[in-house]
Design brief:
Blueprint (H helix, E strand, L loop, with lengths): L1 H10 L19 E4 L24 H5 L35 H7 L5 E4 L5 E4 L13 E7 L5 H8 L12 E3 L8 E5 L7 H9 L6 E5 L2 H4 L8 E2 L2 E2 L7 H7 L4 E5 L6 H13 L4
Parallel strand pairs: 4-5, 4-6, 6-7, 7-10
Antiparallel strand pairs: 1-2, 3-10, 8-9
């Protein structure tokens, strides 16, 4: 105990300078990117059918445990001309396991980690009120059945290293004082009454941040809820259902398993500062 006390006094408390500086540690990563120019599935060599794109390498698709990759949507690659209508990597389904990168590294090296933040907005009806949370932001967290990984990342935001309080962001135990509902877990129908009871007590305008892959698609637990081809237990599992359930709320999808503290903090800061477009 004396050793840790001595080191704490010697080195002092270190807090990151983010967002003034992107002082992420060297290994910080937040997304997975696919380079279509390197991907072998885009090698549409003329000639026999065996050389067509349908017969090219798709080992990353086979390695993905949540079926987040569909190379048919690559359409020339993310680095090519023109953005495809559908992305080859569904960020909402990606659990950030890295198996696709391992499968591709010795073949083409077309898939890699990136430091770019990767999140999506499912709906945003309060676009004219984006400055509502300028001074401070109060967050209510609800666990709808998670493994605890997302909770560990959220708890880290309270420690001296991230220190989200310096940015005017606070966790509140009461939904009546909350501006943001931070949702983690698989979100089954059995949790719906509890969830909507909490949601109904949060005043508008409000944001709902679906944190991690579990509330978005079920994540690694998705197959456990499937019955006869449908999701029997999950309350929602795609963007259209999310929009239908939260048509009067600002909903933000923050994927991965789990998202790291910088990703969570970045989304909360964007909400607080009204920077979502």
């Amino acid at each position: 105990m004396a050793f840790w006390t001595y080191n704490g006094l010697k080195f002092g408390i270190k807090s990151v300078k983010f967002p003034k500086e992107n002082d992420f540690y060297d290994g910080f990563i937040s997304s997975v990117k696919i380079n279509g120019q390197k991907c072998l599935s885009q090698d549409k060599t003329a000639g026999s059918p065996e050389k067509s794109s349908e017969f090219q390498c798709r080992k990353c698709e086979l390695a993905c445990p949540t079926k987040a990759i569909n190379l048919k949507n690559l359409a020339g690659g993310e680095n090519g001309k023109g953005a495809p209508a559908l992305k080859p990597l569904d960020a909402n389904r990606c659990i950030f396991c890295g198996l696709c990168i391992d499968a591709c590294s010795n073949i083409a090296g077309a898939i890699s980690y990136s430091k770019d933040f990767d999140f999506g907005i499912a709906s945003q009806p309060y676009a004219d009120k984006r400055k509502a949370f300028k001074k401070s932001l109060f967050v209510k967290h609800i666990d709808t059945g998670s493994c605890g990984a997302c909770e560990a990342e959220i708890n880290a935001l309270n420690n001296p290293y991230y220190n989200m309080h310096r940015l005017g962001i606070f966790i509140t135990p009461s939904p009546r004082f909350a501006d943001v509902l931070l949702v983690t877990g698989t979100f089954t129908k059995k949790m719906s009454d509890i969830f909507f009871n909490v949601l109904d007590n949060i005043p508008k305008p409000r944001y709902v941040v679906l944190t991690g892959s579990c509330p978005l698609t079920g994540g690694v637990f998705e197959n456990g809820f499937k019955d006869g081809g449908g999701n029997k237990g999950l309350l929602f599992n795609n963007e259209s259902e999310i929009k239908k359930l939260f048509e009067e709320d600002n909903v933000i999808a923050l994927p991965h398993c789990p998202p790291n503290p910088f990703e969570i903090l970045n989304v909360l800061l964007l909400i607080k500062n009204g920077d979502f477009k």
